[in-house]
Amino acid sequence: QVQLVESGGGLVQPGGSLRLSCAASSSISDIYAVGWYRQGPGKQRELVATITNRETINYANSVKDRFTISRDNAKNTVDLRLNSLKPEDTGVYYCMGGPSAYAPIYWGQGTQVTVSS
Hints:
Blueprint: E1 4-7, E2 10-12, E3 18-24, E4 33-39, E5 46-52, E6 57-59, E7 67-72, E8 77-82, E9 91-98, E10 106-107, E11 111-115
Parallel strand pairs: 2-11
Antiparallel strand pairs: 1-3, 3-8, 4-5, 4-9, 5-6, 7-8, 9-10, 9-11
């Protein structure tokens, strides 16, 4: 069982940046897809960005050109760089891992991102 722990959330003004990190308790090299989902206030959890172990990347349309995902199989980490943040990016961001981007079986506990002036 892989444990995922997120860090890096916080309060940021619109237009600002954050870097989220996810540290795994064991190797992620055998996990096909890792990445990030988020759940905004009153909304369902949605995919934000995922990356496979073949470096195939998938972004939600709403974050393309603003967010950047990366994985480091040697360090067992998954990072998400959030730029040009908007109030609608507010939510709890969850690290995930699974056999596909849409079939997560591992979840972190979540980290809060709040975009507000």
